[in-house]
Design brief:
By secondary structure, the chain is mostly helical. Helix content is about 80%, strand content about 0%. It contains 7 helices and no strands. This is Cation transporter.
């Protein structure tokens, strides 16, 4: 749940150099991991790695959007969060369809490639999640960044487990199961972000009474 009087709603927090620096580092890490995972996913035949690569791409775009709206009015930050939520949900839908296609036509992926790249991606996402942890209770824009990072770390653990499953069973089903899980996480996270963004848009367009102005951070 969003807190409209959280400390992270303050202008100085939104323009905090630590917030901007964390976003820039996250942007670089996610952009690099997208390139690595999309190549590894295609060459290794892993739908889970390809799904995770698309997630890295979506997150890199989301961090870039977040950097663009830092310090803007809450209505603009909420609009950006709405766009990010919709993107995350669409990526989840794409992964779900890709997993279904793979179930009908897919070959057994390379477990070794999945394992090595999955561990590297997990390390990258844990670093990003730790950096962004302090901002997890902010507005919809800040919270969307935290949700993306959290989902990525969970997804990477699942990719590593899928690699072990593929290796042990010599079957594509663990890979497809993880791709489906990541799709569900994407859909769920996207809807969470859009729900909070809608609430903030409604509150942002509500005019304050002219006879009485309550302090922004006075009460919870």
């Amino acid at each position: 749940m969003a807190c409209t009087s959280c400390a992270s709603d303050k202008a100085d927090t939104l323009n905090d150099p630590r917030w901007r620096r964390a976003l820039w580092i996250a942007l670089v890490i996610n952009g690099g991991m997208f390139a690595i995972e999309i190549i590894a996913g295609v060459t290794g035949g892993s739908k889970a790695l390809q799904a995770d690569a698309l997630d890295f791409f979506g997150d890199a775009a989301n961090y870039a959007i977040s950097l663009g709206v830092v310090g803007m009015a809450i209505t603009w930050r909420a609009r950006a969060a709405m766009l990010k939520g919709a993107t995350l949900a669409l990526l989840g839908l794409y992964v779900l369809l890709a997993a279904g296609w793979g179930a009908l036509n897919g070959a057994v992926p390379h477990a070794e490639v999945m394992g090595v790249v999955g561990v590297a991606a997990l390390i990258a996402n844990v670093v990003v999640a730790v950096m962004l942890y302090r901002f997890r209770s902010g507005d919809a824009n800040m919270r969307s960044v935290w949700i993306c990072s959290r989902n990525d770390a969970i997804g990477n653990i699942a990719v590593v487990l899928a690699a072990l499953g593929v290796l042990g069973l010599n079957s594509a089903w663990p890979d497809l199961a993880v791709a489906t899980l990541m799709a569900v996480l994407g859909l769920s996270g996207g809807f969470q972000i859009m729900r909070q963004a809608r609430a903030e848009l409604r509150s942002g367009f509500t005019p304050a009474p002219s006879t009485y102005r309550q302090p922004l951070h006075g009460n919870r």
